[in-house]
Amino acid sequence: MNRAEISELMIEKVAEVLGVDQAEIGEQTDLGAEYAVDSLELMEIGARLERALGVRMQIEDLLDMRNVGHAVDLVTARISARPA
């Protein structure tokens, strides 16, 4: 899965959890500042990504993300680090 596909999936999962249209979410979207996302919502986003991608998400990564694009980079790095 490439970065663009991960980005699309991330936006889909974020929109599902927040109950907003995917068009409202972009890589520059700051979930904390723009949507007041709390840690439980971040954990739900992480759980949905884990199920969809088969990669373990660290809660610290989710809590530290600056925006959706940063989260995409973190997930991409986790997938790249998996043994083949």
UniProtKB/TrEMBL annotation:
Organism: Streptosporangium algeriense
Coiled coil: none
UniProt protein name: Acyl carrier protein
Superkingdom of the organism of origin: Bacteria
Residue stretches making up the Carrier domain: 1-79
Keywords on record: Phosphopantetheine, Phosphoprotein
Family annotation (Pfam families): PP-binding
